[in-house]
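Exercise 7b. C-alpha cells:
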C-alpha cells in the first residue's frame, strides 16, 4: 500500500480524519515498533527520542517500513519463549496507556495497530482512486486486471 500513496500530505477523507501526511509516516514507522516491544520492558512516549519519518516519496516510505520490519523480524527470532509472558508497559508522562504481557503488547499495540492503520490507508487510497493491492486475497483492482 505504501508504494501507491499519492504525495498529498493534506488529504483526509473527513474533517476529523488524520491527514495522509501524518498517517502514512506513522504506518512506516510502526513497523519498527515491534522491536521496541520485544527489546524493552516499557516505553514512555514522553521520554522517547525519535526522528519522525518524513513524507517524501513512496520509495522512501517503503524503505522506512522495510528497515523497521527487518529489525523487528530479527528481534522476533531472538526472543525467547519466556519473554512473551513478561510484563510490558506503555505510558505517556507516567500515565498508563497499556500494561500487560509482552505477547499482548506485541499483538495489540503493534500488530493490531498496524492492521488498523493499513485499513485506514486502504480507504484513503480508494478515495484517491488508487488501485489497492491484494491484502487477504485479490482486491477488486486485481480482479479487474489493473
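Sequence design result:
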Amino acid at each position: 500500500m505504501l508504494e501507491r500513496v499519492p504525495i498529498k500530505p493534506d488529504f483526509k477523507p473527513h474533517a476529523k480524519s488524520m491527514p495522509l501526511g501524518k498517517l502514512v509516516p506513522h504506518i512506516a514507522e510502526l513497523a519498527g515498533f515491534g522491536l521496541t516491544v520485544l527489546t524493552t520492558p516499557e516505553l514512555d512516549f514522553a521520554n522517547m527520542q525519535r526522528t519522525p519519518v518524513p513524507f517524501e516519496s513512496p520509495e522512501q516510505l517503503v524503505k522506512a517500513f522495510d528497515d523497521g520490519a527487518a529489525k523487528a523480524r530479527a528481534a522476533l527470532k531472538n526472543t525467547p519463549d519466556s519473554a512473551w509472558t513478561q510484563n510490558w508497559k506503555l505510558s505517556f508522562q507516567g500515565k498508563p496507556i497499556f500494561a500487560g504481557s509482552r505477547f499482548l503488547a506485541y499483538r495489540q499495540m503493534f500488530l493490531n495497530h498496524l492492521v488498523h492503520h493499513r485499513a485506514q490507508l486502504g480507504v484513503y487510497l480508494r478515495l484517491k482512486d488508487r488501485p489497492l493491492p491484494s491484502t487477504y486475497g485479490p482486491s477488486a483492482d486485481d480482479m479487474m486486471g489493473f
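Instructor comment: The domain at 2-143 is CATH 1.20.120.450 (Four Helix Bundle (Hemerythrin (Met), subunit A)). The mean pLDDT is 93.
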